[in-house]
Structure formats: C-alpha cells, structure tokens
Design brief:
The complex is a heterodimer of chains A (about 325) and B (about 375). With about 325 residues, chain A is α/β, with parallel strands linked by helices. Chain A has eleven helices and twelve strands. By secondary structure, chain B is an alpha/beta fold. In chain B, helix 3 crosses helix 4, helix 3 runs parallel beside helix 6 and helix 4 crosses helix 6. The N terminus and C terminus of chain B are likely disordered. Classes of the chains: A alpha/beta (about 325), B alpha/beta (about 375). Chains A and B meet through helix 7, helix 8, helix 9 and helix 10 of A and helix 7, helix 8, helix 9, helix 10 and helix 12 of B.
Chain lengths: ~325, ~375
C-alpha cells in the first residue's frame, strides 16, 4: 500500500433500523437494528473485507454505500462529501463511481435483454461513450473480464454461473467506478469457479486501481482478497485488522469462534477447536444489552451485560488493529 | 481401520450404478458406473461440484429419483439385500427405518401445517408399534439427543417458528426416529452459518460414535471432508474419479481434479501472496458423449492417451491397499507419472500446524462444564 494512505470512503456511526412489523394500525415501536453505529474507513486502492453471519448487517452496510438503502443516521463521506445529505439528483453522479456486484447474477441481469444492451445502456445513459465508440468499449469490457468477444448477442441464460458473474462484474465496471461493493460475489459459485473469479477480481483491482468493499461469509475467500477485514455481529463491528493478524491473533472472542468454526482442510488436525459457540444469533429486534455477543461468549463477565465496549486500537502497527472487547484482553493478560 | 478380523462385510455395497434422466431432448446420463461401500460406523464423504452426480447417487439409493430419472443398471446391497430390485413396499420398510436421509433444505422437508411433535411422533410410530404416549416420550428423548434444549417447547412449535439450525436438528431427529443404521446427509449445513455448521457436524460425529450409525455425507466443502470423513469419494461429471482413505487423500491427492479442487479453495491459513490455482474452464455440458477422460479438457497433464476410456484403477504406490484401496480414474496418475502433489511450487500445502499452535489456549473457561462439546473424534 502507498506510504500515505488516502481515505476514499469514511463511514461514521451508520445506522439502519427497519420497523419490526410493517403492518397494523398502531405505530411501530420495535425496530430491527440491522446496522447500529458502524464506523470504518476504506482507503484508496485497498480491499476491505466485511465478514459476519447472516443477519449481521453486512449486506445492509453495502447497500447503503451504493444508495440502495437510505441510512437512518450517521454519514457516508465519499472523498469528503456526505452522501447521506445529498439530493437524489446529485447522488446520481457519484453513484457512477460506486458500483455494486451482487451475489446472484441471475437476478441482476435482465433475462430479456442481450448482453450488448445490458452493458451498453448504463454507459450511454452516463454519456461515457457515444454510439460510434460503443462497440470498441464493449469489446474492451469483455476482454477485461475474459469473456469471448462474440458473446454480445447472447442472452444471460446462455451463460454458465461463472460467466454470468463475470458479466455482473463487467456491468459494474462499465461505468468506470472507483469503488466496487462486492456483495457475496462468489458464494453461489462452485469452488473451481470461485477461484477464477477471485483471481479475476484481484487482477482487475491492480489493473484499474479499484477499491473494494468485499462482503462475504466465507472466511477463506475474504482473507484471500482483503487487505483488512472487519468482523460484524448483530449490526456492530467487533474487530478490524489485517487478515493475518485477525486469524493468527484474534482479539475478539467472536472472531476466534468464527475461525474455529471454519473447517480446517487437514484431516490430521481434527477437533481441537478453540471454541464452539452454543445457541444461535439472537434476534436483532431486541439485541442483547451491553456487548451484543455476551449471550454466547464463553468469556463474558458481569460488566459485558451492561457496558457497550468501544472499538479501540489494541496494537499500534502501521495498520491499526481494532477490537471491541476489553474483557478478553484483560483476562489474557492476567493469565500471562 | 484395522478391524479386518472382526469384519463382517460392508453395510452398503454399491456396484456399478448407472442412472439416466430422460427429457424431450433425449437421455442424459447422470451417473456412470458408480461403485463404493460403506462400513458400519464410518463416515463416507462424497465430494464434488454441482452437477457431479453426488446427490443423484443418494436419490438413486433411496429410490427417490424424480419421474424422469431411472436407474439403468447396477446393484446396491444394503445388508445383503439389493435396494434397486426391491418393490416399493419393501423399500418403504427400509427407507426412514434402517436408512434415512436428510436434505440441505430442512424447511421444505417438514410439513408446514403440522407441529414438530405431530410429525416426529408419527415418524416414531411408523417404525415401531408403540402407543402415542410412549412415542411422545421417545420423541422427547430424540430431540434431547440432537441437542435441542427444550424439547417440550419444540414439540409444540410449527416448522416456520424454528431457526435454520433448529430445523436441521429436527430433521436429524426425524431421521433418527427410525433407528437407522445408515444416514445419508445431502449438504446438511450448506444453508447454515458456520458457527451453526460446527454444532451440527459435532452432533453427527457424536451420533456416529455413540450409536452404530454410518453416515454418507455429501458436500462440496473440502474443509468439511477433512474434518468429518473416514473415507472419501471424489466425483466429477457423473463418475468417481478418486477414492481413498481421508488421510491418504489429503496427503497425496492423485487425480488432477482432486488436486485442483484442493488448491482452488482459499483458506484463512494461506499465505495471501500465493495465488489461487483455479481450474480453468467449466464442467463440459454433454459429458456423457466424452469417451475418454471427462476432465481432460481442463487438465494440465493431458496427453493423447487421455482420449481413451479411463477406468478406476489402483494407485501403484498405495500403502493402504489392504484396508481400502486408493483408486484413481486417471491412467497417468495410477502409473505414478504425474508430479507428486506439492512438488509444484505453486501448490505447496501450507503448514497449518505451525500457525494453529499460536492461537490462544481457549475454551477452558466455560467449555468444561458442557457435556457435548468434546464430541469430535480426535
């Protein structure tokens, strides 16, 4: 990474509450706290991985960045300007620079249009090319994602899953974005295809100097592609660090639990799991007080039930390691 | 596995299974001569990508193929009786009884308009002649065994009111209701979160140990295979391409596809600088028409000879042939012509052991008090 790291996108105290019941005569009093007070930075040219189980709010964060959801609080500063306060019209321009790739390429590609239309429409709309230069631009796009050039006249159903995901990426790249939000881009693919797409994403990042927010639940894929990883649980960030630090030296019990649950591809090292969590993720309607993880945490103390732990730096390297668990830290120090 | 002396023969012996699906466009072959055995108390993993035929294998055995599917030939001896020649009524006695199956999607396997109790008690009574009251007692016992802490409450619930992990536990409970000897689990945790997956896998393991249960675990996750399997079958395009003891397979995968599969999976213990080795291309569409090796078009070691039909043959340098032969459907690998796994610099297996030992010693605080957490077999 560059010596001087420039923040491309800064998210501050982002909040998204969905009403728990959308129907009924009486006003809603309960909310699903999908994203609750989330802050992070994404530096230019880096990949920030966002991991968590289902219901952790990781996708909601991604959708808010591309303005598919309106935040209920907080700010999203893109190059210093706050996207939340912007008018819809003004946001349209910036939206070009922040594009999204979805998990399911089937539902994000219009089945009635052929590839030429799907890829050309956004470019023409944003006046990035004129009619004359269109063909050349389309060929270049297909080359970028390694699809054969003669496929422009085909429909999405004629492609395999991996090829469709390449199209999804091409569609996002057609607007020459700076930041790509990748929402589980490889989860629906077979492992041999996953590796192809992950490598493609890595190459594209280098070639086009892109910045990624990579959202996924598969730890291996996130580690492979990310410079830093943020771990989310029930709408809150638990820990942020580089992949190596995060998995070799987790500073939050939840990270350790996630790591332990990730099956190790080595039959000689069975069992010996650090912790296996009991129970399930609690409901986000009435999330646990204090630390949201305390109901499943094997290290929880009385204070965890009441105090909300702040996300603080736990080591001072070049890239700060943040964690939201002072208790475990203290316990470990006491043991040593 | 050295119980050769007390060995009484496999629980399930599948030979040369061939299944096709017919459609308006003709016959499509889904399985091409699949053979394997399952011994008592073992976990056999079938691993492969989508469309490789691993689920079709299970459905063929259970007699649950859709209407356009047909087992052309082959034999499947379950305790000496051929499942494929049985009448529907005979099969019914075994299905859900001695042989049970759980699916990826638990919600669609449960009836939404009946309570769990209703369905589970019915399952218990279908396979033993007990009264309602005893059946209820038994149902409660089973629910407890699959790790549901408040069985009375669960009995009253409808499937929609349970979480994904609980539903899968209920599915396992329903399967256990018939006191099966063989449980076929088709991607049971693919739809679940990893922390829940760890719980379910621990449960399956402990069931195998505590009861005389054998499991066929169908999965695409190579990590799960390493953690769960005693033996492994790797499938590709409707064929078994490699089969082996799990330890042998991970130490020296011989088929280029197996090697590719292992290298293609990113792991948290990897060195990030290492580039993933992807398998180029995709599974060929009309693979039944390919006479030679079906993986040849994606294989880095292809020679002209690969266009000839391949058979599953013993690996020449195999030490564990006595117990369970290491077989591979690749003439070059069988003769030991391919470079050994890991010799290629790009695919050096990472030393996970060193990194793991650095992890903080944990679990000593609360885990000791729990009974069921040390279920994993060492």
């Amino acid at each position: 990474m560059a010596e001087e790291r420039k923040v491309l996108l800064r998210v501050e105290n982002l909040r998204k509450y969905y009403p728990a019941h959308s129907q009924g005569l009486w006003p809603v009093k309960e909310f699903v706290k999908a994203v609750d007070d989330v802050s992070f930075d994404i530096y230019e040219g880096e990949t920030l991985g966002l991991v968590g189980e289902s219901g952790s709010g990781k996708s909601t964060v991604g959708r808010q960045l591309v303005a598919l959801e309106k935040p209920d609080g907080g700010s999203i500063l893109y190059r210093g300007t706050d996207l939340v306060k912007m008018s819809d019209r003004a946001i349209r321009e910036i939206r070009r620079e922040i594009q999204m790739v979805f998990q399911d390429p089937n539902s994000s590609l219009n089945p009635r249009k052929h590839i030429r239309e799907i890829l050309a429409e956004p470019m023409l709309h944003h006046k990035l090319v004129d009619k004359a230069g269109l063909d050349k631009a389309l060929q270049e796009l297909l080359d970028l994602v390694s699809l054969p050039r003669n496929t422009l006249g085909r429909y999405p159903y004629e492609f395999s899953g991996g090829q469709r995901q390449r199209l999804g990426i091409a569609k996002a790249l057609s607007l020459q974005p700076k930041l790509l939000v990748l929402d589980e881009p490889v989860s629906a693919l077979d492992v041999s295809i996953q590796a192809q797409i992950l490598n493609l994403l890595r190459d594209l990042q280098k070639e086009l100097k892109l910045t990624y927010l990579f959202i996924a639940h598969g730890l291996g894929a996130v580690h492979y592609i990310s410079d830093r990883i943020a771990v989310m649980y029930l709408g809150k960030i638990m820990e942020v660090a580089t992949g190596t630090e995060l998995f070799c030296e987790p500073r939050h019990p939840y990270t350790l639990a996630l790591k332990s649950a990730d099956p190790l591809p080595d039959p000689a090292r069975r069992g010996g799991l650090d912790i296996v969590l009991e129970g399930e993720v609690p409901s986000a309607v009435n999330p646990p007080s204090g630390c949201r993880f305390h109901t499943r945490c094997p290290y929880a103390e009385a204070s965890c039930r009441t105090d909300v732990p702040p996300l603080v730096a736990v080591s001072n390297g070049d890239i700060p390691h943040l964690a939201a668990c002072p208790v475990w830290q203290r316990q470990r120090e006491a043991r040593q | 596995m050295f119980e050769r002396l007390g060995y009484v023969g496999p629980l399930l012996d599948v030979r040369n299974l061939r299944t096709t699906f017919s459609s308006d466009w003709g016959q499509k072959e889904a399985l091409d001569g699949v053979s394997f055995t399952v011994s008592p108390r073992e976990i056999l993993c079938i691993v492969g990508e989508s469309g490789s035929g691993k689920s079709v294998t299970a459905l063929s055995l259970m007699g649950l193929l859709p209407r356009n599917g047909k087992v052309l030939n082959g034999e499947a001896f379950f305790e000496g009786r051929d499942l494929l020649k049985m009448k529907e009524r005979e099969l019914d006695e075994i299905r859900g009884g001695d042989m049970a199956m759980i699916f990826q999607d638990a919600i669609s396997s449960l009836n939404p308009v009946f309570t769990i109790g209703n369905q589970l008690i019915e399952a218990v009574r279908a396979h033993s002649s007990v009264g309602r009251k005893e059946a209820r007692e038994e149902a409660l016992g089973i629910l407890q065994r699959v790790g549901l802490s408040e069985p009375e409450l669960v009995l009253e619930r409808y499937p929609y009111a349970l979480s994904g992990g609980m539903r899968q536990r209920v599915m396992i409970a329903m399967a256990l209701a018939g006191k099966p000897k063989l449980l076929i689990a088709d991607e049971p945790t693919t739809a679940l979160d990893v922390t829940i997956q760890a719980q379910i896998m621990q449960l399956l393991r402990s069931l195998c140990e505590e009861t005389d249960l054998s499991v066929i675990l169908i999965t695409h996750d190579i990590g799960l295979v390493a953690q769960m399997a005693d033996r492994v079958i790797v499938m590709y395009a409707g064929q078994v391409v490699e089969q082996s003891d799990v330890q042998v397979l991970f130490n020296s995968p011989d088929h280029p596809y197996t090697q590719g599969l292992m290298q293609a999976v990113p792991s948290i213990y990897d060195d990030k600088a290492r580039r993933l080795v992807a398998i180029p291309g995709t599974v060929p569409e009309h693979y039944q028409d390919i006479e030679g090796c079906r993986f040849a078009s994606r294989c880095a070691y292809k020679v002209d000879e690969c266009d000839l039909p391949q058979v599953l043959s013993y690996v020449a340098s195999c030490e564990s042939q006595m117990n369970f032969p290491h077989c591979v459907r690749c003439h070059r690998a069988a003769r030991g012509e391919l470079p050994p796994y890991g010799a290629d610099e790009r695919c050096t297996p990472v030393d996970v052991v060193a990194q793991i030992s650095q992890a903080p010693a944990a679990g000593e605080l609360k885990n000791e008090t729990k009974g069921d957490t040390n279920g994993r077999r060492a």
